[in-house]
Amino acid sequence: xxxxxxxxxxxxxxxxxxxxxxCNPISGxxxxxxxxxxxxxxxxxxxxxxxxxxxxxxxLPKDRFSAERLKGVDSTxxxxxxxxxxSAVYLCASSLLAGKANIxxxxxxxxxxxx
Amino acid sequence: xxxxxxxxxxxxxxxxxxVTLSCTYDTSxxxxxxxxxxxxxxxxxxxxxxxxxxxxxxxxxxxxxxNFQKAAKSFSLKISDSQLGDAAxxxxxxxxxxxxxxxxxxxxxxxxxxxx
Lengths: 115, 116
Known about the structure:
The structure holds two protein chains of two kinds. Chain A is mainly beta. Chain A contains no helices and eleven strands. In chain A, 0% of the residues lie in helices and 48% in strands. In chain A, strand 4 and strand 5 (44-50) form a beta hairpin. Chain B is mostly beta strands. Chain B has no helices and twelve strands. Chain B has strands at residues 3-5, 10-14, 19-21, 24-26, 32-39, 46-52, 60-61, 64-69, 74-79, 88-96, 104-106, 110-115. In chain B, the strands form three sheets. In chain B, strands 2, 5, 6, 10, 11 and 12 form a six-stranded mixed beta sheet that branches. The relative contact order of chain B is 0.34. At the A-B interface, strand 4, strand 5, strand 9 and strand 10 of A face strand 5, strand 6, strand 10 and strand 11 of B.
């Protein structure tokens, strides 16, 4: 079974530029999560999708971050314009359903450096 | 909001020895899940073990076991017969069951070094 795929693995941009990350969850997984992991900290949820609908985006900085999952499969997270404090690893995870017992499977993440 | 605290930024263990990683959490809920995830340098988070709050029996997965103390809100991970491949960041995480989100709430992590 293929895992959660993310690209790119690394991205370096200058502040005020825009950037996009892509995630393809495990086949059949209805729930998709985007987490931000700043160096030295644990991941923090940015947004959660159930199929193509948003379940929780309360911690997404909506003035600069956006995310979509148009067909309920793969997802894109965008930052525009980027700030220095956006430097982090962006992790995508998926689970079969959103139920309490469901395990989240993670991708390898995208490491973003904003200069 | 629930908080998860890992008080040990770094731990070291010798190969074949046993090590315990600590985790405490703060919640007013009675039903929830707790997890330990491992994050090697490759960055991919890997589930090590999970525990449902309603189950009194401590979870075990091969060399990994937990000591779940619900009243004390403590959830420690014991790694027995440590191997070089166990070296990684370990994150404790809490998941609520009270809303539809079910996102994970992580601690800051413990870096585990395994020496030969």
